[in-house]
Structure formats: C-alpha cells, structure tokens
Design brief:
This protein folds into two domains: 207 residues, FAD/NAD(P)-binding domain (3-Layer(bba) Sandwich); 109 residues, 3-Layer(bba) Sandwich (FAD/NAD(P)-binding domain), CATH 3.50.50. Helix 1 packs across helix 8. Helix 4 links the parallel strand 9 and strand 10. The protein is built from nine helices and 16 strands. It is an alpha/beta fold. The two termini are 39 Å apart.
C-alpha cells in the first residue's frame, strides 16, 4: 500500500496554503484533490459571483493575487489563481483523488479513494464540511410546475422560468441572487431572517478596518469573538459589501421566513401564500462527515478540535472550517495564519522545527497578504 508522511485531503485554498508551508519546511506530503482540475469548486459557483474581499487580501502565502488591490476578483479568476499557485510552487497535487473513507490503520491513518488506498502518518482535512445541499422537507410538496434550484445548482437567471422568483435565505448568497433575479426582470421576493450586515465604516481605509476585525477582533482569542462564534456557525455571517437596503432598492421584496407549503405554493410564517413560479433555495449546505470513521465528533456531530488540532487523534487536523480560529478563517486570504499554525505543529510532530525554514522563505510567508 502506498504510504506518505502527510496527506492533505482537499486542494482548495486551505489545502494548497498548507501544502506550500509544508514544502517550505521540507516535509514530504501529498495533496488529494477530488476534482479533475484545481479550482473546480470555484468554477462551479454561479456566474456572477465575486469574492467578498478585495484582491489585496485574496492571496495565499508566497504569492499575491494578480489583480488591482481594490478590485473584487471573480470566481473564475480565483480558480485560475489557485491553479497557477499550485503550478508555480510545483505542489504535489493528485487530481481526481476523491477520498471516500478515512479510518485507523496500524499506527497511522488509512485513506480510501476511488483508485485505491494509502496510509499516512498525519492527515490534514481541508475538504470543507459542507457537501450536501440543504432544503426543508416541505420543498418536495411544491407544485411540479415551480422551478426549484438550490444555490449550489444556480448559475444565472437564464435557468429560471418566466414569472416571479422566491429566494429563500437572506444571507450573502440569497441577497446577491435575489438582486440578480430582479435585475433580470423577475418580480423577486427574498425570505428569511436578517443576518445583519458589516457596517460601511468597516470598509474604510481600503478595507483594512474590516480585515483587522475579521482577523483580530472576531477571534477565538477574544471574548467578543468567542461569543460571536456560535452565532456565526449557527446562522451564517453578516452581509458583506452589501446591505439589505441595497437589496430592496434593487427591486426585491422582503418577506418573512417560509415555513410551509399549501396547495403546492410556499407559505410564510405570517400565513401568506406566495404565488411564485421559481424558488431558489439559498439555505446552505449540511455538514457531511460520514466518510470519517474516527471517534472525533461531539453530540451535535461536529468535529472536536482546538484551532484545527484534534486532541484525541494525534496527527489529525482540520483547516478551512468556518470560524476555525477567527471569522477570516472562511476567507481565502484568512487561511494563511491557520495553515502556518498547523504546519508548525506538523513539523514538530515529524521532528522538523519550523526554524529550518530559510530566511527567504520566511520573508515570503510574512510578506504575503
């Protein structure tokens, strides 16, 4: 059976950043990416999606994002950047390697893929938790004439039928898709609880205030961050670079939460029936850790860890989880600090001190966004 010292599951921004930092420390490893191409998860998002953060904060360690500092990259530009990042540093990525199971082996971990199995002394899970589109059970009761799409399937308004559109979920995805539907000429309703919004003042100084808050203030190291973390994990983050007033000005009608279906039509919590021809479910994704056959989960089915280190399973780590250590953990440019911390832990476990990093490499890490 193939054996590697360290396996990284997932070749997105979290996995690639970790790979780069392990390479800087001279640690042999392998990145297992399920997609046929790096950046596939970005390319499969809706066409008009742009990052929430400007390009100055969208780079990974060692390589700045190649765009004007104040621009907001498209999802395809982000995918191209990740592909270039892996190629530029010759990162050891194996494409089409979907890990279907991780379990214990003798003094190591066993990873099963579609092409066979391998063993690893240490494993970094960087595949993200959210794999299953989440829709309420009553969605199946909607009339068959209503076009239903989950945000994970939505690409552009051309997929919608003629007539009105109900977008369920008032977070960032729901707000942006609702605006796009309204601008395409559809009467559009946006249902769901308000998630709040980042105040405009936070974007002052070219976004530096927001970036400071997302990295330093809303962190597991601060009382306010520890208080905010459960709320963010349970209900999603606030609207970023967008306000609900802007959504309404775009022609979108706000409506209460959708809670039921009556005679094939959605019904909100005030009992009003919404006669619409389209429903876009921006209700998120459910975690799916069913492929991890290790005793690492709490009563709610969430992995237990301390800043990504799984205490009960030496050699097992998570990166890229929402609010792993801070609000910015979920942003492309925010993963660097988490990746560096795990790379240091892995280096220590393999007997290679992070002091072995050359001064040039260390400058590259520190000077990256």
């Amino acid at each position: 059976m193939e054996r590697v010292p360290v396996a990284i599951i997932g070749g997105g921004q979290a996995g690639l950043a970790t790979s780069y930092l392990l390479r800087q420390r001279g640690i042999d490893h392998l990145v297992l990416e399920a997609g046929a191409r790096i950046g596939a998860s970005w390319r499969n998002r809706w066409d008009s999606l742009r990052l929430f953060t400007p390009a100055r904060y969208d780079g990974l360690p060692g390589m700045r994002f190649p765009a004007p500092a104040n621009s907001f990259p498209t999802k395809d530009e982000m995918a191209d950047y990740l592909e270039s990042y892996a190629a530029n540093f010759s990162l050891p990525v194996r494409l089409g390697a979907s890990v279907t199971s991780i379990s214990h082996a003798t003094q190591s971990f066993r990873l099963d893929t579609g092409d066979g199995s391998l063993e690893a002394d240490q494993v970094v899970i960087a595949s993200g938790p959210y794999r299953k589109p989440r829709v309420p059970p009553f969605a199946r009761e909607l009339d068959r004439s209503i076009t239903q799409l989950h945000a994970g399937e939505y690409r552009n308004p051309q997929q919608l039928s003629r007539g009105s559109v109900l977008v369920v979920g008032a977070g960032n995805s729901g707000a942006e898709i609702a605006i796009e539907a309204a601008q395409a000429g559809h009467a559009t309703f946006l249902a769901g609880r308000a998630t709040g919004q980042v105040p405009p003042a936070a974007y002052a100084l070219n976004g530096r205030i927001f970036w400071f808050v997302a990295n330093r203030v809303l962190s597991v190291n601060t009382p306010i961050g520890r208080k905010a973390r459960p709320q963010v994990l349970a209900h999603g983050g606030p609207l970023i670079r967008l306000s609900m007033d802007e959504v309404i000005r775009a022609g979108v009608t706000r409506t209460p939460r959708v809670v039921d279906v009556k005679a094939g039509a959605p019904v909100d919590e005030e009992g009003r029936t919404l006669e619409v021809q389209n429903v876009v479910w921006c209700t998120g994704f459910s975690p799916d850790f069913s492929w991890i056959h290790l005793p690492i989960f709490d009563a709610k089915g969430q992995p237990t860890h301390d800043r990504g280190v799984v205490g009960g399973q030496p050699g097992l780590y998570f990166i890229g989880l929402p609010f792993l250590t801070k609000l910015a953990s979920a942003f492309v440019g925010g993963v660097a600090g988490d990746a560096k911390r795990l790379a240091d832990v892995i280096a220590s476990a393999t007997g290679q001190s992070s002091r072995a990093v050359s001064s040039a490499s260390r400058r590259a890490v520190l000077e990256s966004p």
